[in-house]
Amino acid sequence: MKKKLFSSLFITLLVVSSLNFFVLKAASITNLTITPTSQNQLTLTNVTATFLPNTPITTGSILTVTYDVGFTGGATLTNTDISVTGTNIISKVCSGFSVGLFTCTLTTSASVTTLVTIVIGGANKLTTPILADNYPFSVTVNIGGLGTTFDSGAGLAYISSNSVKENEVEVSAYVPPTVSLEIFTTGTNTKLTDPNTCGLGVLSLTQVNTCTYDVGVGTNNATGATVKVTSDGKLRQGATNFTDTSGTITAATEAYGIYISSNGTIFTPAGLYGTSYQPVPQTIPIFATSASTSDSLVIANHFTVTHAAAMSIATQVGSYKHKLTYTAFTN
After folding, report:
1. According to the model, what pLDDT value does residue 12 have?
2. Are residues 24 and 148 in contact, defined by beta-carbon separation less than 8 angstroms?
3. Which H/E stretch holds residue 157?
4. How far does the chain reach from its first CA to its final CA, in angstroms?
5. Pseudo-torsion of CA 179, 181, 182, 184, nearest 10°?
6. What pLDDT, on the 0 to 100 scale, is given for residue 162?
7. If you ran DSSP here, which 8-state letter would residue 268 be given?
8. What's the topology of domain 27-159?
9. How many CA atoms does the CB half-sphere of 24 hold within 13 Å?
């Protein structure tokens, strides 16, 4: 009974040992890229495959290259049509050419651990598939040709149709025009506090009173923007209107007007608004225009508006006011 048990254990150990002897080791080669010289359909082309070994490649290692049968002409390839290069690779012998398959046995001077390059194509070449698509190539390395360690990997050859590739994604977006308008303290990018005010102060017969502010317009529109202005009526108190002027304003003569006293680098005053004082419009005329993008926070992009008033001996006593409204839109 003991002899039979011992014999059974011995046979079992032999079987287990035999199984362990034939266990295959496998790993993935990395960074396998497949690059046809031409990505056009039905075109003779070289195909380059590059990869990094996972296990050091030793002499006698066998490379097996397989590829999609959409690539034709593989059966007519020869050893001289294949190049295998890399550090420590001395030579190769390639054979077994058939549709979608060939092998190469390597001779090396030392272990190969860096980039390996395989070029398929010489006097004879592959012809790219008839259809635009993504086509798989694979490389398997039988390390040392011993059949115990195999490293392998796969990559894609991308064949295009009218420059449109199957592996491409076109991303599109549309940026709409924007425009903004702010009133700033003169010569700064500090916004006036709502309600924005421009105080001319207490008038006298001996001087012309002024007040100023900046108008800043921002737009991403390449052809710029247009600014318009209007008021809720003349500078007035009750039913009494201050006298508007066109031109200059002098002390002791009742007159009121506005003009763009500084253009900045972007906007151009419309009409006479950039040359002399003009009446504040009651309709909505164009006040200034630009022909490019602008940033409302860049001081140099602002234009400065000056209001001026002078009283005469006959100007009626009172507090005069009116409101201006600026609007902007893209050109």
Report:
1. 36
2. yes
3. strand 149-159
4. 105
5. 110
6. 65
7. E
8. Immunoglobulin-like (2.60.40)
9. 12
Q: Dig out the tokens for 150 from the structure.
A: 């195999």
- Spatial strand order in the sheet of 82-85: 30-36, 47-52, 116-120, 82-85
| The CA-based dihedral angle spanning residues 70, 67, 78, 152, taken in that order and rounded to the nearest 10 degrees | 180
Closest alpha carbon to 188 in 292, 308, 301, 266: 301
CATH 2.60.40.10 positions along the chain are 27-159
Residues listed for the chain: 331
Class at the top of the CATH hierarchy for domain 179-330: mainly beta
Residues 51, 55, 61, 66, Cα dihedral to 10°: -40
Question: Contact 118/126 with Cβ under 8 angstroms?
Answer: no
pLDDT of residue 2: 35
Positive or negative, the CA dihedral 24, 27, 28, 29 is: negative
Tokens describing residue 258: 């506005």
Q: Could you say which DSSP state residue 271 is in?
A: T
Mean pLDDT by 10 residues, the chain (331 residues): 36 38 70 94 96 97 98 98 98 98 98 98 97 95 96 94 73 96 97 94 98 98 98 97 96 98 97 96 94 97 98 98 97 97
The tokens of 291 are what?
């022909």
Token pair in block for residue 201: 């102060």
